[in-house]
């Protein structure tokens, strides 16, 4: 496969070396940073395909850098996997709420990390072809080829996972899916992620669909006791 540039951000040299060796054996190109200042400069200068970001860093937390990356237009679309020793559910959900696309807890097996990276790159369109399909519900339009979403011809900003969730929903309307089924369809069957992660991304998708040009969040419906459903006929709050 084509070389994909991965930025490893961790203050422990031994961990960076372990990750770099594993990724280089899998044909990834690696660059490294040991603090958030170095990391931000490399992200701006090198534009990596994906960032592996440790939670605890000197001079500021990885969460602080994540907030900055997701806030700025230049860096907001770069996928981020959090590397964390914080295993409580609240901490994990907090990282996802801030904008992380995935997380993996230490210690982890290099093969699992590589699988997570490849799955995330597939979700963001790197290394995979995208069918030239368009899906439309009233004034909501998803263009799979350009990976853009519009409401009344105005671009809607959302993360790559939310985009892929919306594309899956729009291509399978009026069908209820469990969280496990959504994980398999959107994240991939070989990626082990807690089902609670789906709820976080559903919440982020609904928020993105609450645009000034029309509120389409109600098309993503909660099916009690099952999971979620996309309903094109839902009552909308339109201006």
Please, could you describe this protein's structure?
The protein is of the alpha/beta class and 239 residues long. The protein folds into two domains: 120 residues, Response regulator (Rossmann fold), CATH 3.40.50; 97 residues, Winged helix-like DNA-binding domain superfamily/Winged helix DNA-binding domain (Arc Repressor Mutant, subunit A). Helices cover 38% and strands 23% of the residues. The protein is built from eight helices and 14 strands. The strands form four sheets. Strands 2-1-3-4-5 form a five-stranded parallel beta sheet, with helices on both faces. A four-stranded antiparallel beta sheet has the order 6-7-8-9, covered by helices on one side. Strands 10-14-13 form a three-stranded antiparallel beta sheet. Strand 3, helix 3 and strand 4 form a beta-alpha-beta unit. The longest helix is centred in the middle third of the chain and has 14 residues. It is globular.
Summarize the structure.
The protein is an alpha/beta fold. The protein has helices at residues 13-25, 36-46, 62-71, 89-98, 110-123, 160-171, 179-187, 196-208, and strands at residues 4-9, 28-33, 50-54, 80-84, 102-105, 134-137, 140-143, 148-151, 154-156, 177-178, 210-211, 214-215, 220-223, 227-230.
Query: N-to-C SSE series?
Result: EHEHEHEHEHEEEEHEHHEEEE
Number of domains: 2
Largest sheet: 5 strands, parallel
Lateral arrangement of strands in the main beta sheet: 2-1-3-4-5
CATH topology of the largest domain: Rossmann fold
> Strand content of the residues, in percent?
15-25%
Number of strand elements: 14
SSE-based structural type: alpha/beta
